[in-house]
């Protein structure tokens, strides 16, 4: 499995990926799932991949040389000369379709689904930052202010904290922290997601970044997050009062067949209200 | 969708279920997914169901009258005369198989998978409390001290908090609180899980309970949890320091094709360490 997240903020972009792949729990390996495409001052793009590893590796391989021929364009569009992230993403979509044409039938004959999920984001000089999610069919959607992040792979465990924290106004380091907490929750609940983690933080309109880091379990910051988040979460949980069982009954009936009779319902309320 | 959780503690059992079903987002309904079977002083059992509603309702219907005939038993085993939760669960498994025999082929012809998931737990006089998860095939597994809870339906969003809090020594009200926080996280991230919620708390060796409650969004305790957990989670998040980007570089290379050159990696560390 895999967990990758890409976040688009007013201040910039944050990308985080794990590096564990598995073909069954008895076959766990480490593969990096992030690639940075950078032409300093001109374009900065990051690709995160999940799904069938042979497909995503093939896509990454041919993306470098993929050419999108358009009648109204003098020369073919590549990720290196595209004038918009949208066009660059179309090149990526075409790369996915080329791998499909090449491999899908054989995969199907082997009973393997053609499954790849990609997050592709960045900025090209002349336009703002953009973030896309690309599907197995080569089609894609773009992140908006209402939905400023994409996740691929094992996304559910790590989604609640993103939903609670991330808005377009979130600052970059805070978003990086949030992505790492999201990764930590995912890693805790799914064995097939694991370190090292690749983190890239891009500041708007820089067209390059030096904030690229590989984080393993020895990383002091991630260790602090891992321990601190778990421990403080527990403290918060303990700080919330337990329910108090009220002797009065609610109206709502619980549909029950307990020996054929209906069950009376108690109320639960808060200690402080009992004291009033 | 559905989210149900059953927890087995030394002190007793906790059961929580949502009440939302959907046949597509344009067809959302409220169905209770919990039934309590109680013969005061003799047995107390709770059934939670997820999956295809027509299947789970049929199972619940026939479970009342289901009989397991055994050569070495003078009279057929039912959930009302079973001498162990294990036998009661076998009766439930047989009920699932009867519904399978009745409906599976027609469902298959209609392209519908025979899909039902059940949590069944309780206590019968003469033995300790037991908690089971029953699958579509009518087979089942039992909770242990290492894995003291079961979830069915949309389980992922709500799993991290259970993993962090629940142990066999957790007390009942704390476990009820944990189940409700788990439900709150699930509800927040999945539209198809919603109130009202049915909560049952059973104390060991009581063979009955009056702690049965239906919780809607007006419930003052759940409202407090819903707001308090979200707000305090945010405070904890804010209390964790942001990463500090260190000028020194790590050894680990990030596999990258950024314009063909390898990308140097920074370190992230903790503010306090920078100060040392």
From TrEMBL, chains A, B:
Matches recorded under InterPro entries: Ntn_hydrolases_N, Proteasome_sua/b, UCP009120_prtse
GO molecular function, one term: peptidase activity
Gene3D superfamilies (UniProt xref): Glutamine Phosphoribosylpyrophosphate, subunit 1, domain 1
Keywords (A to Z) from UniProt: Hydrolase, Protease, Proteasome
Pfam families, sorted: Proteasome
GO biological process entries: proteolysis
Any Gene Ontology CC annotation: proteasome complex
Name this polypeptide is given: Proteasome-type protease
Species of the source: Ramlibacter alkalitolerans
Lineage of source species: Bacteria, Pseudomonadati, Pseudomonadota, Betaproteobacteria, Burkholderiales
């Amino acid at each position: 499995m895999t967990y990758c997240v890409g976040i688009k903020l007013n201040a910039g972009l944050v990308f985080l990926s794990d590096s564990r792949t598995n073909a069954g729990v008895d076959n766990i390996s480490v593969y990096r799932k992030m690639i940075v495409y950078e032409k300093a001052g001109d374009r900065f793009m990051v690709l995160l991949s999940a799904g069938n590893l042979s497909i995503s590796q093939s896509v990454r391989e041919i993306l470098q040389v993929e050419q999108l021929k358009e009648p109204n364009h003098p020369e073919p569009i590549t990720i290196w000369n595209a004038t918009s992230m949208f066009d660059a993403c179309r090149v990526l979509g075409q790369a996915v379709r080329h791998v499909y044409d090449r491999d899908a039938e054989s995969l199907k004959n082997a009973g393997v689904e053609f499954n790849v999920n990609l997050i592709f984001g960045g900025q090209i000089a002349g336009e703002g930052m953009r973030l896309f999610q690309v599907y197995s069919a080569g089609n894609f959607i773009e992140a908006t202010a209402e939905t400023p992040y994409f996740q691929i792979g094992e996304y559910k465990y790590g989604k609640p904290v993103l939903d609670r924290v991330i808005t377009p106004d979130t600052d970059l380091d805070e978003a990086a922290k949030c992505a790492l907490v999201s990764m930590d929750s995912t890693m805790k609940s799914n064995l097939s997601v694991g370190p090292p983690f690749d983190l890239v933080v891009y500041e708007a309109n820089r067209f390059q970044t030096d904030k690229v880091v590989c984080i393993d379990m020895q990383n002091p910051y991630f260790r602090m997050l891992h321990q601190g988040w778990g421990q403080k979460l527990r403290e918060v949980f303990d700080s919330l009062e337990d329910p108090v069982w009220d002797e009065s009954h609610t109206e709502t009936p619980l549909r029950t067949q307990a020996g054929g009779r209906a069950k009376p319902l108690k109320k639960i309320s808060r200690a402080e209200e009992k004291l009033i």
